[in-house]
Amino acid sequence: MINKKSIEIYNLSDDREKRLWQDCIFVFDSSALLEFYSYSDNEWRSISENIFTKLIGRLWIPQQVEYEYLKNKEKTSRKPIKAYKFLIECEKINNGNNKNLEQTKSNNDSGYINKISQGVEEINNLSTKEINKISGQFKSLKEKIAKEDKHPYFEDKTFIEDFESVIKDLKESLHNHLNIFKDELAEFEERIKKEIANKEIKIEEIAQNDPVFEIFNKYFEVGEGYSFDKLMEIVKEGELRYRSKIPPGYADKPGNADKEDDKKGKEDDKKGLSIYGDLILWKQIIDHAKTVKKPIILIINDIKEDWCYKNEQKRIEKPREDLIREMYDFTGMEIWMYTFSQFLYKSGELLKTKVDNKVLENIQEIEQELLKEKENKSITTAEMLGKIGNNEDRNDLIKILRAEDYQMPSYHHPQEEDYWREEVEVENSIGLRQTIRTNLLRVYPETFNSCDAYMDIPMSINPDIQKVTSPRLNKTWGVIAKPTPSPIDGYFRGDFTYNNPPARVFGLYLIQE
């Protein structure tokens, strides 16, 4: 007999959510803790006073989170200084050392004061140029009507002289107004610099005195660490899990990330035990849940595919089923996940906490800004591939892509459906059919980027494909154009990744449904 209740742990009803919140342990990941340094004094004080005080004895972090937090907190606490500096200067994003690529590009969301100054100079140069044009045209007009014995001419020329003085006044007026504006802008810039200097001092004081750390130290309990032998056991297990892409943590293994926002830049490359950091903290969470015999709610802002699914707003929709099952099988306990802004919102609803709506809105905005910060470091296909020369340049580009946080364009539609390792029937140019297994079949609800679907297949499969049929979806597509090999070794999957082996990409149009 089919047991309908067996699926309940994978879905979150309102009743189940209320029950979890009544008895759970709230576990925070280092990404959620470190984000506190982006909040204002008022915001983190409000959170600690209105929420943490109600959860004494229920806030816990694994020892691995403690290690990652302490390792990164000083650097993170000083990070807001850059945000102030970039009000004046343009943030430069390094494109690497490839001779065929521009060395840097500017983040458009920065350098406001410098851009205003440049705008003033452009106005000055343009106005001078245009007034000189006006003066030249007026001079030509005067010369044209100067001779009284030839048409065109006017007997009374006083109005001509009057207008000449108007042009002269315009030139002087614009020059004077621009100079006044430049003086005002210089004063404004000095005031901004003073304010920034004061903010830097305050941020440095927070970094040294660290009241955020004191809050965590007051309200959070910390779990025990593992011996080196135990860590080595986890590494061995991790090797197997990561090869099979069993969560969590496999996205931290070089070459394993599948999604655009999972790729790491040079600065974030992980080596040694740090590659297995997520798996280590996961094991510690399981051990703690088994000991205290309570369900777990994990607060995590690093929302990668090896932890959870996310919705269109890039918030957590639900944990990965593998994690829910593993937690339940080993401990008999349930688990769910939220981003920190989701946690704050739910706290108001389920714990009856009182956090100002402005605080909630601002924290949601900060989460979005941090996501935008990653997007600002991306570089488009045209910018990169359009500048690739010979094979040596191509290899240099691969190194840059793997070293820096650059990303190929995403071909995501908000309502797309992804079918991994989907079996489809393909027909070639002479009508022969065979069944193959795709890397990915991505189906759009409407025509998107000139396609109704994308198909990604291994290079080992014959690319002579004219039609594609999915028996499960009952749909048939035609191939729009010749298959495109992924320009970098790796599955295309609508994004750039550098997994092996390389793949071919097909754009498809719907023939039959």
TrEMBL record:
<keyword id="KW-0175">Coiled coil</keyword>
<feature type="compositionally biased region" description="Basic and acidic residues">
    <location>
        <begin position="255"/>
        <end position="269"/>
    </location>
</feature>
<protein>
    <recommendedName>
        <fullName>PIN like domain-containing protein</fullName>
    </recommendedName>
</protein>
<feature type="domain" description="PIN like">
    <location>
        <begin position="124"/>
        <end position="323"/>
    </location>
</feature>
<dbReference type="InterPro" id="IPR041578">
    <property type="entry name" value="PIN_8"/>
</dbReference>
<feature type="coiled-coil region">
    <location>
        <begin position="171"/>
        <end position="209"/>
    </location>
</feature>
<feature type="coiled-coil region">
    <location>
        <begin position="356"/>
        <end position="383"/>
    </location>
</feature>
<feature type="region of interest" description="Disordered">
    <location>
        <begin position="246"/>
        <end position="269"/>
    </location>
</feature>
<dbReference type="Pfam" id="PF18476">
    <property type="entry name" value="PIN_8"/>
</dbReference>
